[in-house]
Structures are given as structure tokens and as C-alpha cells.
């Protein structure tokens, strides 16, 4: 399961 | 989500809405650099490629859509709207912004967190955002006087990135393993570019005189 994409900021 | 980041996003949203409001109501883009707006549209287009693939939150998706639609609308207004386009001063807005795109892309190829298309495009958008304001600042230097809305637009843009720096500091101390050097350095460079504009903006506001930027 792909680790959540590092970029959660806009 | 922390207060600095929320405040930063809201300030960023306000900057775009101030600009759209100005162009839409007075049907003029005097003092606005089309090149900076084109660079911002490119920044959002390359940063939000994951809009339909990675769902993070409703807020995240909504804001991405707003930024994409507003930045492309502003470019459309200045380029194609029959009245607005007449007020675009292309003789003054001469910054060779294409010279910014290539170095940012090459740098993103070399310095990035992961060598994948999405990550390289994301890193490219970070570097490009750091320098996207340059054509606008050059135009402000040239036209010397700037009207309130343009001054507020640039001020809000600078303020949003300053708030993001506080957000990064906050996240660094509260979230283990939250380290993004590329984002931090790029964001810092971007904010420093605004620093001299801020200085003159506050000077004019304090002395209650029209903003004059030194040649």
C-alpha cells in the first residue's frame, strides 16, 4: 500500500 | 493542519481573489504583470498533477481547484478579455520569464526528493513559485507608482509564504520525521525576494505616502 504522498500542503 | 498553514492558505486565497476582483470590477489589469500570472498558472498546473489521483482532504482538493481556476482565469482575462487586455502594458512587462522556467526545471531534475515524474514536477513548481514574482516586482520598479490593489496583492503573496515558514517550523517541532529541506529553502528564498518590497510597502504605509519603489 503506497505510503501517503509526502506533500499534503498546497 | 495548524493555524499558520490555515492562515497562509487563506492569505494566499485572498491575494488571488483581490487580483480577480480588481480585474473583474474595474476591467483593468494596469500594473499587473501577465508574465507573473502565467508563471503562477504553470506553478499550480505542475504542482496539482495529483489532483485526481491522491485524495488528501476535501479542503485540499477544493483549494487546489480554486487556485487552478483563478490563476488560469486571470491569465485568460489579461490575454483575451476585450476590455481588460487593452490595459495590459506589454512594453513594460518585458521580463524574460521563459529564462526562469528552464533553470527551475533543470534544478528540479538535479535536486529533488525522489526521481519520479510527479516529484520532479512538484519540485519544479516549488522553484518556479519562488521566482514567479520577479516579473511583477520588475514591473513595479518600472512603473514606480503602484495602485493599492496591486500593492495589496504582492503584500498578501509575500505574507502567505511567510506564514508557511512559521507552519514549517511548527511542523518540524511537532511532527517527527517532518523534514523537507527543498521546500524550506525554496520558501525562504521566495520570502526574501519579497523582503525589499515589504520594506518599501511598510515605509509608504507608515508615512502614509503613495508607494514609491526606488529605481
TrEMBL record, chain B:
A Gene Ontology molecular function term for this protein is: ER retention sequence binding
Q: What is its main location?
A: endoplasmic reticulum
Any one GO CC term of the record: endoplasmic reticulum membrane
Checking Pfam families in the record gives:
ER_lumen_recept (PF00810)
Q: Which keywords does this Swiss-Prot/TrEMBL entry list?
A: Endoplasmic reticulum, ER-Golgi transport, Membrane, Protein transport, Receptor, Transmembrane, Transmembrane helix, Transport
Q: Which InterPro entries match?
A: ER_ret_rcpt (IPR000133)
Give the residue spans that cross the bilayer: 55-78, 98-115, 121-140, 152-170, 182-202
Q: Name one GO biological process term.
A: protein retention in ER lumen
Q: Name its cellular compartments.
A: Endoplasmic reticulum membrane
Note the superkingdom of the native organism. Answer: Eukaryota
Give the membrane topology, semicolon-separated if more than one.
Answer: Multi-pass membrane protein
Stated family: Belongs to the ERD2 family.
PANTHER family from the xrefs? ER LUMEN PROTEIN RETAINING RECEPTOR
Name of this protein: ER lumen protein-retaining receptor
| Organism of this sequence | Olea europaea subsp. europaea
Amino acid at each position: 500500500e503506497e505510503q501517503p504522498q509526502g506533500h499534503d500542503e498546497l | 493542519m495548524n493555524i499558520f498553514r490555515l492562515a497562509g492558505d487563506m492569505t494566499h486565497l485572498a491575494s488571488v481573489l483581490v487580483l480577480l476582483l480588481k480585474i473583474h470590477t474595474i476591467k483593468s489589469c494596469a500594473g499587473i504583470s501577465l508574465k507573473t500570472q502565467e508563471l503562477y498558472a504553470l506553478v499550480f498546473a505542475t504542482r496539482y498533477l495529483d489532483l485526481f489521483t491522491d485524495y488528501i482532504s476535501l479542503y485540499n482538493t477544493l483549494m487546489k481547484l480554486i487556485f487552478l481556476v483563478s490563476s488560469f482565469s486571470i491569465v485568460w482575462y489579461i490575454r483575451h478579455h476585450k476590455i481588460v487586455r487593452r490595459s495590459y502594458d506589454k512594453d513594460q512587462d518585458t521580463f524574460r520569464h521563459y529564462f526562469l522556467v528552464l533553470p527551475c526545471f533543470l534544478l528540479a531534475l538535479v535536486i529533488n526528493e525522489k526521481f519520479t515524474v510527479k516529484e520532479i514536477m512538484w519540485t519544479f513548481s516549488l522553484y518556479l513559485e519562488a521566482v514567479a514574482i520577479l516579473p511583477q516586482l520588475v514591473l513595479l520598479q518600472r512603473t514606480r507608482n503602484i495602485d493599492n490593489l496591486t500593492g495589496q496583492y504582492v503584500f498578501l503573496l509575500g505574507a502567505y509564504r511567510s506564514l508557511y515558514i512559521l507552519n514549517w517550523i511548527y511542523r518540524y517541532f511537532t511532527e517527527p520525521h517532518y523534514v523537507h529541506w527543498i521546500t524550506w529553502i525554496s520558501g525562504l528564498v521566495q520570502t526574501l525576494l519579497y523582503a525589499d518590497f515589504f520594506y518599501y510597502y511598510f515605509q509608504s504605509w507608515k508615512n502614509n505616502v503613495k508607494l514609491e519603489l526606488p529605481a
